[in-house]
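Record type: monomer structure entry
Structure origin: computed from sequence
Chain ID: A
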Amino acid sequence: MNKKIVCAALAAMMVCSLTACGGDSSSSAADSSSSVAAEPASSAADVTTSAPDATAPADAPASTDAAADAPAGTITYDYVANGMKIVVGEPADEIIANLGTYDKVFEAPSCAYTGTSMYYTYGGLQVVTYPDEHDQTLNRIYEVDLLDGTVATNEGIKVGDSYDDMVAKYGQPTQETTVFAMYKADGKAVEFFFDKDNPDIISEIVYTIIIV
């Protein structure tokens, strides 16, 4: 694998500045069998386990089939679930409502902003929101996490695929370390994290805002 090795300090800075709060991958909010992304500190509190009067999707939201055939090097930075574009940085309430019933949700203090972030999990898909810095009543999309192989990127890459699979669809990363690869443009990024025991295998994929 032709991955460049950069210093550990850069890796730590990128992960801390570009993703939600990291931590143990086990969730204090979960009583389900689905995987959960790295969760904030253990102070994260349960809110509820389902949304009222929402229509549950037949399967976990997934990217559209049409986008899966995008040629190598053509990258979309807004995730598409059930035909709906999820744009990081944009208002979240309508998107959360349209995604249907979530499996679980928990809240925690936002790492990047003042106020509380919400973590909504739909099978292998997790959507994280943050409060607008000028209006705490307005929630925005912070990131979209693909947690397992049941969901894929718009380009057709999923958890369990290899580094070479990723490069074949996306081209060479903008930045990378031995455990992380990132593609970025216009204040947005698609990040790939690799299994600590098998660093050629993707363990999580994140669509997120780049915090300057």
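Annotation 1: The chain has one domain: 8-209.
Annotation 2: Residues 1-72 have pLDDT under 50 and may be disordered.
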